[in-house]
Amino acid sequence: MEFDQLIKRINELSRKSKNEGLTDAEKTEQTELRNEYRALVIGNLSSQLNSMKIKNPDGSIVDVKKKH
Can you tell me the mean pLDDT for 9-32? Predict the structure, then answer.
């Protein structure tokens, strides 16, 4: 599922949960969508950190990935 569609559906289920409640199938869907969202965010953050470099005061540049 595309990221924007994923967020839209999570928000729909959240609103429905607050207003009228969710069926068991919708609760399961909501949990799965939230887990998918978390995985996407963690993956995105990981790739950003892996491509990040730190410049030390002495001018040398170190990859964050290699440092940790």
Answer: 96
